[in-house]
Amino acid sequence: MLEKSEAFSGFAVRDRDAAKDFYGGTLGLSVRVLDEENGLMQLELAGGRNVLVYRKDDHAPATYTILNFPVDDVEGTVAALRDRGVEFERYEGTDVEADEDGVFRGPGPLIAWFTDPSGNILSVVEAG
């Protein structure tokens, strides 16, 4: 029934303007405001995978990663994002802990987690 529907995902933020600055300015993504009054915007991601972002005054961030960015060079991307003020998460006491740069090294691909201004969890992860 829905096999031909071009589905899209979305997530909430507390402050649409802070999110717009973070996703557009800090991360360098293309951001399009869809509805100023109602706090709707769209992240226009590579490959046509657009994501709806909407303001929710009582927003509570998810406890899981909502958006992953596959990259060829995790360490280089982490360094570049850190230069733009992004702080990386360290999940102490877990099976895999981050190195001094915030990169988790195995098992699995290299990955580094960070949050947006609303506390939503994002990652840069080794492509491939």
CATH superfamily: 2,3-Dihydroxybiphenyl 1,2-Dioxygenase, domain 1
Count of folded domains: 1
Shape descriptor: globular
Helix and strand sequence = EHEEEEHEE
Total beta strand runs = 7
Helix coverage percent:
10-25%
Tell me which oligomeric state these chains represent: single chain
Strand order of the largest sheet: 1-4-3-2
What is the typical, i.e. mean, pLDDT? 93
Task: Please mark out the parts with pLDDT under 50 across 5 or more consecutive residues, or reply none.
Answer: none
From the coordinates shown, what is the CATH architecture? Roll
Q: Which fold does the CATH topology refer to?
A: 2,3-Dihydroxybiphenyl 1,2-Dioxygenase, domain 1
Rg (C-alpha, Å): 15 Å
Biggest beta sheet summary: 4 strands, mixed
The count of helical stretches stands at 2
Helix/strand structural class: alpha/beta
Q: How much beta, percentage-wise?
A: 25-35%
Query: What is the CATH top level name?
Result: Alpha Beta
Care to describe what's here?
The longest helix is centred in the first third of the chain and has 11 residues, at 16-26. 16% of the residues lie in helices and 30% in strands. Strand 6 (111-115) and strand 7 (121-126) form a beta hairpin. The protein has a four-stranded mixed beta sheet, with helices on one face. Strands 5-7-6 form a three-stranded mixed beta sheet. It is an alpha/beta fold and 128 residues long. It has one domain: 2,3-Dihydroxybiphenyl 1,2-Dioxygenase, domain 1 (Roll), CATH 3.10.180.10. It has helices spanning 16-26, 74-83, and strands at 9-13, 30-35, 40-44, 51-55, 65-71, 111-115, 121-126. The mean pLDDT is 93. The chain is globular and about 40 Å long.
